[in-house]
Amino acid sequence: MSQQQESSARPNAATIFVALVAGLATTLSPVDAQDRPLSADFPEVYRVGGLAAPDWAQFTERGDLGFDAFGNLYVLDAEAFRVVVINPAGELVRTVGQRGEGPGDFRDPTALVVWRDGRFAVADGDRWAIQVFGGDGSHDHYARMNTEFRPFQLQQLTLQRRMKPHPDGVSLYAQGASYANRAIASWGTHPDSMGVDDRTIERFDVSADRVVAETALQGWRAQRESPRESLPDELESEHILRVFLDDMILEPKFYWDVLPDGTLAYSDSSAYVVRFVAADGAPRGELRRPVVPEAVTGRMQADLMERELDQFKRPSSAILLEVMEQREFYPEVPIIRWLRATWEGGLWVRRRGEEPWENNGPIDVFGTDRSYLGTYAPGETGIPSAFGPDGLVAFWEVDEMDVPSIVVKRVPEGVR
Which of 31, 338, 339, 357 is the most buried (most CB within 10 A)? Predict the structure, then answer.
């Protein structure tokens, strides 16, 4: 069965719940069900950024980070139209790019990928291209999107949220745009007509002057139990309300990353399941922990609806309340809230927090053989923004004035 067929045939939440409980009852002991505490006392290697930093380290926002095999850290500073390269001692190697029209200049840098040999690529949305750079920071070539076979690909390049390097050194993985971003860009066209969505991972070959794209993975998405009702006439043109109604509250999100051999690791359901797919599309097994999703109660629904209305940036009205009440709830609270692959090929997986909407729960760590190593308690550490060689990890931090800085630490061998 292909990955797409496997995803579309994914059992519903109730089936997953029954199967998971039955499996745990026969294969897991009480000891297996317990978290093994880990200490996050990582030594700091260097820190750059903040108000007193030199000009090159005055980061304007928290952008993509990536290490090369030499321990150099690459930082996309999109609002400054540049990539900053920092050596393992925390010193500036070079800055690449500026706002402009020439090769190596940027109009709208949206994402960064770094290959292990030090070459890197930047998605430049306004150019409708991916710019590829050599290990010395020199501009190599433009890989332009082929709009002849992919309608709306121009908008989708600008809206790509996450890109990851493929280990072959000539391609990368890119996640499709979210429903909300596609709704904003669709200008009255239904977002589903824009091609790949945020459950789609494409492989982009950027070795030549035209990107060659192919679908690498199509994740599963929960289906609404009933069709969406029509909006009131006075709200029919509101894109954001369409997004609210087509997205179930507590619907499981799609999380993914790439292992060193090109295998994709991803989570797309409410259960504690991470699936693996090889670069050629072949299934590579699953990773599970004995954590069962909690059923959504009436009290949860009331609390979540109140939070949704509080966060909606408009005055409440009877029509708005009527529209919001049409939203469906997913029947379970999803467990997994983020995942990231380590440099060596392990996994860090964050679980939900105390409340159903909180993403700040414990972080489980798995080794390269997918064995469970232990868990960081909430507040012990975050998941690094980038993993590097020799245990290097990079975190974004912000001070009380929301000024960003980067902290690079070193994690012990046992959790790499």
Answer: 339
